[in-house]
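Lab notes, practical 5.
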Amino acid sequence: MFKILFTIILLFVNCTAHATTTIVILGDSLSASYGIDHNEGWVALLERRLKKTNNSYQVVNASISGETSAGGLQRINNTIRQHRPSILILALGANDGLRGLSLRQLHSNLTQIIQRSQKSSVNVLLIGMRLPNNYGPQYNSNFSAIYSKLAKQFELPLIPFLLSGLENNRAMFQKDGLHPTAAAQPAILDNVWPHLKLLLK
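Output from the prediction step:
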């Protein structure tokens, strides 16, 4: 009798575990709530929105301020093993661009992150980045094109720019002019939500 009961409990636990959809955000300071309270960041807002609709979602914010695509590549295998996500929101590259790092290397790093994720049956939502105008039109154009090329190559849903709609509103940025304020976070979530919602279906 005890063995039967134990088996039933074990099956229930396994079913519950499989029913949970884990979403990992692999990003930089734009997703790590830099300069604002962690609970006000767009990732925290996403977690609360998901809980209102369905308790089976788990959100893991694996974003680190200052992170580059190379850092994300170094962490991706352990991140997948540890959290076993169903969805990866990939939001890296801004620091590569701001530091003037090799665009060829950025492309290679993002490619490998996507490939390793897909090999583990993880759905990837790619978030594009843009750079300030002072980096020059050619570099900026080549930088932004990386995301559209990867989205096409791997058939990924693409958010062209995480901060879309905010870039010309100075009041939505902190003093450094790069990091959005707490007031901007709901708009950032609204940029992500429609694309993520399709993956959740």
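Observations recorded by the TA: Confidence is low (pLDDT under 50) at residues 5-18. Residues 37-200 form a domain with the Rossmann fold fold (CATH 3.40.50.1110).
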